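Archive entry: two folds, one per protein. Generate the first.
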Amino acid sequence: MTDNEWDEYAGGWDTNRSTTVYANCAFAELLKITELAALSVFDFGCGTGLLSERMSPEISHIVALDSSAKMIERLKQKALPNVFPIAEFLTGDLIRRNSLMHQKFDLITASSVCAFLPDYKADLSLLRSILKPKPTIAAIAAPARAAGMTLAISCDMVIAADDVDLSYPEVAVGVIPAMHFVHLPRQIGRHKAFELLFTGDTITAPEAERRGLVNYAVTRASPRQSARVWRQVRRHVARGHPIGPRCVHAGQRFRIPPRYRKHSGYHLQHHFDRRFPRRPQRLQREASAKLVICV
């Protein structure tokens, strides 16, 4: 590793009040929204591993990545038994050649590293590639702006505290909100999306819920209500067949041949049967579900 601009901060990272408070708050929020036991975690932009250190007693194993060799050196000195540090940038090559990255992770944690990514869209795609194929639920506990908002609505479901606000403020500084032009119109429709992008207006979480950007706006002052919503969502998602969410996602990407686009689900099934006549029955059922969802 060559020298990294973050190396100079490694010495005082663990004693910095801001970083320790952040790690404590992040860990407390994780405990509220999910059960950590037996999960595999990828701690992206881990620094000296303050969050990994707190998660370690609760979690099966953690792969902790940071581009700063000095930060990772500090983490290694802690000798956490189930934390495996890597001092590299996140790249497709790293995922292919490092055996620690060959697995799929249950959970990915990332903090301010997202603000320093050179290619946000490419890195987000890499992160999705190492995440186990299951529904993703975003939790918004602080004001969400620009890329932070896009990251949230890119998930399958969004739950937000009712006292946070959300916006796409790029228009105020003359920046083209390129990423948002992809995700936002798909979520709330072209006209409503352009209203937010062209005005840069800030909206509250309850208003975002009414517009379809957020599934639930929950009361922060009532942890029990928030926990109840989380449990309800997870219970309903878990009730379905394991391949269900994968079929939904695949259905969104499936390209229907032009001659079948105006036909019924029966004709689409017929097309599938002709194209994949020798597929195992289980895979055929799975792929058939993709077609049904597309219709």
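Generate the second and append.
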Amino acid sequence: MFNSSFAITAAALLLAAPAAVANAAEPDAGSFTYQGVKYDYTAEQRGDVKVLKGSAYAGKVPFELRVNKRTVTGRFNGRPVSFDVKDVKPIASKASALAD
């Protein structure tokens, strides 16, 4: 249950994070709002892995995700999360809103 709910949020993160980071020394930063919750994050490419670090709920809930070609692993609010990238369902309307 927790992983399913988080997968949707992670999908929004994956859509919000740029596909490529020009300089690994300077992570890209961003934020978005999903279901009324604001997420602030940085995205950094480390080899074949994209690392997303940030917080939700006004900085009270930290998260760190490691995304590779097949899986997303990491922690959300101190809890381990793990799921397949193929299980992430893109949210087209959110992606459009993020582009604005």
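Annotation attached to the second fold: The first strand starts at residue 28 and ends at 34. The CA atoms of residues 11 and 89 lie 6 Å apart.
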